[in-house]
Design brief:
α9 packs across α10. The chain has helices at residues 27-33, 43-60, 74-85, 99-110, 128-138, 161-167, 216-223, 236-243, 255-271, 273-293, 320-331, 358-373, and strands at residues 16-17, 66-71, 91-96, 114-119, 142-146, 148-149, 154-155, 171-175, 194-196, 209-214, 309-313, 333-334, 336-337, 346-350. With 374 residues, the chain is of the alpha/beta class. The chain folds into two domains: 16-21 and 273-373, Alpha-Beta Complex (Aspartate Aminotransferase, domain 1); 27-269, 3-Layer(aba) Sandwich (Aspartate Aminotransferase, domain 2), CATH 3.40.640. The chain has twelve helices and 14 strands. β3 (91-96), α4 (99-110) and β4 (114-119) form a beta-alpha-beta unit. Helix content is 40%, strand content 15%. The longest helix has 21 residues, at 273-293. The chain has a seven-stranded mixed sheet with strand order 2-10-9-8-5-3-4, with helices on both faces. It binds pyridoxal-5'-phosphate. Pyridoxal-5'-phosphate (PLP) binds at residues 21, 73-75, 78, 100, 146, 148, 150, 175, 177-178, 198, 207.
């Protein structure tokens, strides 16, 4: 028996998380998460799961019965949409204009999808006409788009895309990881069949409990599937029995995270979803104005800029990594760097959930001013 040397108690810095995620959880959410847990089949916990479902329908503006939280991060919920909708040989058309479009491509291929991509430079979005052309060319079973491309800061408009998909008889799958809670979404009105999100961005919770929803039409396709979903953990026919009236044991839910998610959703309902969207928009506009006063230029055209995530061009001659390093080390502020096509070219600034506040912008701008002047 070897003894372990003394280990100090947990001590972590208090950062302001203004990167592409996670964002800081709301203090009330952190408090809710420290509530002593009940059992995962306790009637009070089952009632809490029902509340989460109903609140998720509200923030997504959907009536989909199959609306749940996946135990895992946004990527798990992403994989759940693919695993439950893609059958081997299905043609899947993916709009790629950033990092997460590519992740969808990789996942759809792994589940046997016959993937066709349409692409745009990072920071651009697809027009309805371009999407129509893609559907005409490929006749896909599924069209997958990223509503809020966190790698570029662009918002893909979705108005009319659902009707287009109906016309061509395909399902519409949408990544709403960086839009849910911060950007207007009308899932049913827009005719979206499958969507997923995460807890640690616009919802203002900690990572680990991720919203998932599927329309009755997508559910129908799942029911008619000739083979089993090739992922046991994310199989909605099984998960549906845990979240539905059967309450059949599937996995042990991360109880305390669900407490946090419920509180985060409750706070949004209390604020009012539209007010919450408006707050995100106003604080983003304030950020853009302040950045421009420092001579810094957002990468995305104003019309398609996300309120939750702004990509800012790094000025010539400035070492982007050195600046973000100083913000972190000296000011306790985290911002992100560029990915893929935008690596080294932009910083990524997130104003998500609880962090979408004027004080966050003021703290960042005053720190950035000092660091850039040096
Ligand atoms: C963050 C993100 C994901 C992945 O979510 P994780 O919680 O990191 O697993 C997927 N899509 C988009 C657009 C994201 O921003």
């Amino acid at each position: 028996m070897k003894n372990y040397p003394p280990v100090s108690a947990l001590q972590m810095p208090d950062r302001l998380l203004l990167g592409p995620g996670p964002s800081n959880a709301h203090p009330a959410v952190l408090q809710a998460m420290s509530t002593p847990p009940v059992g995962h089949l306790d009637p009070t916990f089952l009632a809490l799961m029902d509340e989460i479902q109903s609140l998720l329908r509200y923030v997504w503006q959907t009536q989909n019965p199959m609306t749940i939280a996946v135990s895992g991060t946004g990527t798990a919920a992403m994989e759940a949409t693919i695993a439950n909708s893609v059958q081997p040989g299905d043609i899947v058309c993916v709009g790629v204009a950033g990092y997460f479009g590519n992740r969808l491509v990789d996942m759809a291929r792994r589940y046997g999808g016959d993937v066709r991509t349409i692409s745009k430079p990072w920071g651009d979005v697809f027009s309805l006409e371009e999407l129509r052309q893609a559907l005409e060319t490929y006749c896909p079973a599924i069209l997958a788009l990223v509503h809020a491309e966190t790698s570029t800061g662009a918002r893909q408009p979705l108005e009319g895309v659902g009707e287009l998909c109906r016309e061509f008889g395909c399902l519409l799958l949408v990544d709403t990881v960086t839009s849910l809670g911060g950007v207007p979404i009308f899932l049913d009105e827009w005719g979206v069949d499958l969507a997923y999100s995460c807890s640690q961005k616009g919802l203002g919770c900690s990572p680990g409990a991720s919203p998932f929803t599927m329309s009755p039409k997508a559910w129908e396709k799942l029911q008619q599937r000739p083979n089993k979903v090739p992922n046991w953990y994310l199989d909605m026919t099984l998960l549906g029995k845990y979240w539905g009236s059967e309450r059949m044991y599937h996995h042990t839910a991360p109880i305390n995270l669900y407490y946090g998610l419920r509180e985060a959703l409750r706070l949004i309902a209390e604020e009012g979803l539209e007010n919450c969207w408006q707050r995100h928009q106003q604080n983003a506009e304030y950020l853009w104005e302040q950045l421009e006063m420092l001579g810094l230029i957002p990468h995305v055209a104003r019309e398609f800029r996300l309120p939750t995530l702004t990509t800012v061009r790094i000025p010539d001659g400035v070492d982007g990594k050195a600046i973000s390093g100083k913000l972190l080390q000296e000011y306790n502020i985290e911002i992100g760097g560029g990915l893929g096509e935008l690596a080294g070219q932009v910083w990524r600034v997130g104003l998500m959930g609880y962090n979408s506040r004027k004080e966050s912008v003021d703290r960042l701008i005053s720190a950035l001013k000092e660091v850039l002047l040096r």
